[in-house]
Structure to design on (844 residues):
């Protein structure tokens, strides 16, 4: 233990507060010693509870190196009292008391050990990074503590964290803070955005510092990934700074020996070029200068590939502060940011939590396996958008990991969960074992993880060369990629050779470690790598297994349009070699919302599939339907038999021979939707129906039938019966069917009690307008109303008419329900006005 570290200022507070609530939030800056010293404090004060102290780390490299440092401080062999576990590597034993693990390790351990027996304390380190598995593991640990393990200690540690939401989530809990001990760091920015590649800019700026004697101590250069690190190291070794310096890389793909070399102290100046693994957790002694590219590879859901992918993005202001702090741990330092101060102010203050930017299917499958069937009701630290959960559940159901009826995890889901990869590739690897092509499936999986290895928009000559060398069959775009990568691998990824065929050499080089990673997973999970069946069909079925939610059916051979499952429409990429197959599966999609909010999907990385494969691999997802529908282009009713894969029509057979009753129903529906017009269905017909309905309501003793919306459908179906096209119904007579609705004794009652027109004193007949919501209205010019002293009534004298009185120009001058009062009170004044305007008309 190193009791001189700043974290020891709160040692007594930690040992006092943890037993009180069993939940503590600890805030301390990077370099204060919290990652290495807090576990030791708990162990030495016997606060580890009933079992091991587990420390969650977001990165494998930090997990191993922190464990090694703590073991060295405690003078024990790594794997004895202090150990670690990362994917594929468990350096621990029954004697291990302090164990550093990556976040996914604990979540998977919760599946087999739901009460966390043998674990007394769980420490969540670097929680400010808000990794998805850290969030979920904390929620599960909190749930376990609240239900069956009240003795479990939970300690959340962070360098920079807005603790209010977390404090509310974990309440009641204790919050402790350590100010740490840092030295001033001079932050500098570029005057203008760099024109060169970021590795060249970093090298030039460091050369400038060295030549001007401004470079004291070791140097830490942050780059986003291994490719940028290798380019930076090459640039540095060819520069003037290499003479008196040791230049070393630091990232998770290095061997243990090379990782250790980067943190070892030397007599010469050390220049470390690192990913963001050195941003937190690891403190590298001697660093006085930080050169920050301002970039990192950030995990984000890639809708094109349907998986989580690492993208190079600008880091947030908070991450930049973390990196700056690395220069002031042991002495005053400087931090040079390779962007302008103006741009810095425009950057996001904090990183977006992974739960809001990653696909949740793997973690939801884990929760389902833990017995949490209602994932929407799970106690999330920060609830994801419902659409994210819905998408994940749909994908898992499509892959067969969840039951369609209950939503519970299936046997297939449990098998998929044993593979520490995205569910798509777990499903692919299981299919590969069945079809005997595990090695090739691993290569296909590796090819989809990073940037495409084929350069797009190359010239016609390169396209032809590429097709001649790699395009043996038109069964899958994957096969071209696989052959291109195999060729590039044999060429040693030489830049000149790759350029001739439009192959991106560096992208192809990055496939090899991914391929080894997938092969390691396959071997570790007991899949056979022997006697490989590398036939096209076996590989095509593997792709189908992992991407069944992206199955498509070509609309016709003359276009690139497709229909896809989940009611989507797609367009096949023009450069795909899969051009003739009616059925395809796409491994990459690009969803675009049009102006009318309709979703269109651009499809690439296509593979030809057969309907029989769908039937054999997904028998429960097949159905056949038959029915009739309206064909707007043919303007007629057609019968249609469909074969469906989920909601996608694979085959459709149409016929113009349609049962008369069903044809009449479809035609009537189109008429009521106003897509078709019956020429004889006039406004008088609508008034006849209104008169009938009004009389039935006003005089129920007459026992007249009404015409509701359903009965109107029946009437129109009677009119359309015997027809199947618009041409046959558009001129059909309407009145015979309509009047047949009433018997001979009922028909005269309409004209008697709800007449269409009313005879007036002038001898003219005024039209009555009926309504379903308003009283009937009689409209007439004022001259025709002379002599009509009382308001007329209809419906056996029970319903007074509303009189709309018109001037000679046919415009209303008065509306009244009391004609007698009109004549006595309003007419005298109105008469004088109208006489002046219309002197030639008669006035009384």
């Amino acid at each position: 233990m190193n009791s001189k570290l700043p974290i020891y200022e709160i040692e007594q507070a930690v040992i006092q507060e943890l037993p009180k609530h069993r939940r503590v939030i600890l805030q301390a800056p990077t370099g204060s010693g919290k990652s290495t010293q807090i576990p030791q404090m708990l162990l030495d004060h016997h606060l580890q509870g009933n079992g091991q102290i587990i420390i969650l780390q977001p990165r494998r490299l930090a997990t191993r190196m922190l464990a090694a440092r703590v073991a060295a401080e405690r003078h024990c062999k790594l794997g004895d009292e202090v150990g670690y576990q990362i994917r594929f590597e468990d350096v621990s034993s029954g004697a291990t008391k302090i164990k550093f693990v990556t976040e996914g390790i604990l979540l998977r351990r919760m599946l087999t050990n739901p009460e966390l027996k043998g674990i007394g304390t769980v420490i969540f380190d670097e929680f400010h990074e808000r990794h998805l598995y850290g969030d979920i593991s904390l929620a599960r640990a909190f749930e376990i503590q609240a239900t069956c393990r009240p003795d479990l200690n939970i300690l959340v540690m962070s360098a920079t964290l807005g603790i209010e939401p977390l404090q509310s989530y974990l309440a009641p809990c204790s919050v402790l803070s350590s100010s740490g001990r840092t030295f001033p760091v001079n932050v500098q920015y570029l005057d203008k955005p760099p024109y060169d590649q970021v590795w060249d800019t970093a090298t030039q700026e460091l050369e400038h510092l060295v030549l001007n004697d401004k470079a004291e101590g070791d140097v830490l250069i942050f780059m986003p990934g291994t490719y940028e690190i290798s380019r930076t190291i090459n640039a540095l070794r060819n520069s003037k700074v290499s003479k008196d310096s040791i230049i070393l890389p630091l990232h998770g793909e290095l061997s243990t020996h090379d990782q250790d070399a980067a943190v070892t102290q030397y007599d010469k100046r050390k220049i470390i070029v690192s990913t963001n693994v050195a941003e937190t957790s690891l403190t590298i002694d001697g660093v006085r200068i930080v050169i920050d590219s301002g970039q990192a590879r950030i995990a984000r859901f890639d809708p094109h590939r349907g998986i989580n992918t690492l993208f190079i993005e600008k880091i947030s202001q908070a991450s930049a502060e973390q990196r700056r702090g690395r220069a002031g741990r042991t002495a005053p330092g400087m931090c040079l940011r390779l962007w302008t101060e103006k741009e810095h102010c425009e950057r996001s203050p904090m990183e977006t939590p992974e739960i809001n930017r990653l696909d949740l299917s793997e973690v939801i499958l884990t929760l389902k396996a833990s017995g949490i069937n209602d994932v929407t009701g799970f106690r999330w630290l920060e609830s994801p958008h419902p659409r994210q959960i819905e998408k994940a559940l749909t994908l898992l159901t499509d892959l067969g990991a969840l039951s369609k009826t209950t939503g519970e995890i299936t046997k297939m889901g449990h098998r998929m969960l044993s593979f520490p990869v995205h569910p798509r590739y777990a499903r692919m690897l299981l299919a590969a074992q069945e079809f005997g092509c595990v090695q090739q499936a691993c290569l296909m999986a590796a090819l989809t993880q990073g940037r495409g290895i084929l350069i797009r928009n190359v010239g016609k000559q390169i396209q032809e060369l590429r097709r001649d060398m790699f395009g043996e069959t038109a069964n899958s775009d994957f096969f071209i990629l696989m052959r291109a990568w195999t060729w590039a691998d044999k060429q040693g990824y030489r830049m000149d050779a790759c350029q001739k065929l439009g192959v991106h050499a560096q992208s192809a080089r990055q496939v090899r470690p991914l391929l080894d990673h997938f092969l390691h997973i396959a071997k570790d999970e007991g899949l056979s790598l022997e006697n490989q069946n590398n036939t096209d069909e076996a590989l095509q079925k593997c792709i189908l297994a992992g991407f069944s939610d992206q199955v498509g059916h070509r609309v016709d051979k003359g276009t690139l349009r497709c229909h896809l499952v989940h009611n989507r429409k797609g367009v096949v990429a023009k450069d795909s070699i899969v051009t003739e197959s009616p059925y395809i599966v796409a491994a990459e999609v690009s969803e675009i919302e049009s102006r009318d909010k309709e979703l269109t999907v651009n499809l690439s990385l296509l593979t030809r599939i057969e309907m029989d494969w769908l039937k054999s691999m997904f028998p429960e997802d097949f159905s056949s339907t038959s029915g009739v529908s309206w064909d707007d282009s043919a303007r007629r009713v057609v019968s249609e038999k469909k074969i469906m894969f989920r909601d996608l029509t694979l085959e459709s057979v149409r016929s113009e021979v349609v049962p008369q009753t069903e044809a009449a129903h479809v035609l009537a529906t189109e008429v009521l939707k106003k897509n078709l017009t019956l020429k004889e269905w006039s406004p008088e017909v609508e008034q006849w129906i209104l008169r009938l309905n009004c009389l039935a309501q006003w005089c129920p003793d007459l026992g007249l039938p009404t015409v509701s919306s359903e009965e109107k459908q029946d009437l129109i179906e009677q009119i359309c019966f015997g027809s199947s096209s618009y041409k046959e119904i558009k001129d059909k007579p309407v009145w015979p069917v309509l009047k047949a609705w009433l018997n001979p004794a009922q028909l005269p009652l309409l004209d008697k009690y709800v007449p269409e027109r009313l005879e007036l004193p002038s001898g003219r007949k005024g039209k009555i307008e009926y309504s379903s919501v308003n009283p009937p209205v009689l409209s007439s010019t004022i001259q025709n109303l002379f002599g009509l002293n009382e308001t007329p009534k209809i419906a056996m004298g029970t319903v007074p008419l509303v009189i709309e009185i018109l001037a000679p120009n046919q415009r209303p001058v008065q509306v009244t329900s009391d004609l007698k009062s009109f004549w006595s009170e309003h007419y005298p004044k109105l008469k004088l006005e109208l006489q002046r305007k219309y002197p030639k008309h008669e006035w009384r």
